[in-house]
């Protein structure tokens, strides 16, 4: 039985972080680019504290700047802004509320609509029990139960 328990905890250890926090690739396969409707992309998606936003683009083509609401509307970055420029930029969503991101290269934001606005929820997975995470946990436990029965 010891090995079964080990497998059980190993699977839990692997699954737990991925259940609690997700990595969200901005724009999915399109990545971070011009002429993409990020408004439509973000619609219906859930962003929660603990999640990570990943902005993917060919390095040098774009960048990522966190702005406020008016910066988003006007495509203007604050003077002290530090753009992310690696092409694989990860932003940890550490607080709830509205977040805005723009590309500061050329006129990508103004003309190319390269801007993203999201609303980050509180840690929905840990605070609201009937969530997808719970569903997955129950499913994993059920599968483990079956595996254990087969092993005995
Ligand atoms: Cu750009």
UniProtKB/TrEMBL annotation:
<dbReference type="Pfam" id="PF02298">
    <property type="entry name" value="Cu_bind_like"/>
</dbReference>
<feature type="domain" description="Phytocyanin">
    <location>
        <begin position="22"/>
        <end position="122"/>
    </location>
</feature>
<protein>
    <recommendedName>
        <fullName>Phytocyanin domain-containing protein</fullName>
    </recommendedName>
</protein>
<keyword id="KW-1133">Transmembrane helix</keyword>
<dbReference type="GO" id="GO:0009610">
    <property type="term" value="P:response to symbiotic fungus"/>
</dbReference>
<dbReference type="InterPro" id="IPR008972">
    <property type="entry name" value="Cupredoxin"/>
</dbReference>
<keyword id="KW-0249">Electron transport</keyword>
<dbReference type="GO" id="GO:0046872">
    <property type="term" value="F:metal ion binding"/>
</dbReference>
<feature type="transmembrane region" description="Helical">
    <location>
        <begin position="132"/>
        <end position="151"/>
    </location>
</feature>
<dbReference type="GO" id="GO:0016020">
    <property type="term" value="C:membrane"/>
</dbReference>
<keyword id="KW-0732">Signal</keyword>
<keyword id="KW-0472">Membrane</keyword>
<dbReference type="GO" id="GO:0009055">
    <property type="term" value="F:electron transfer activity"/>
</dbReference>
<keyword id="KW-1015">Disulfide bond</keyword>
<keyword id="KW-0812">Transmembrane</keyword>
<keyword id="KW-0813">Transport</keyword>
<keyword id="KW-0186">Copper</keyword>
<keyword id="KW-0479">Metal-binding</keyword>
<dbReference type="InterPro" id="IPR039391">
    <property type="entry name" value="Phytocyanin-like"/>
</dbReference>
<dbReference type="InterPro" id="IPR003245">
    <property type="entry name" value="Phytocyanin_dom"/>
</dbReference>
<keyword id="KW-0325">Glycoprotein</keyword>
<feature type="signal peptide">
    <location>
        <begin position="1"/>
        <end position="21"/>
    </location>
</feature>
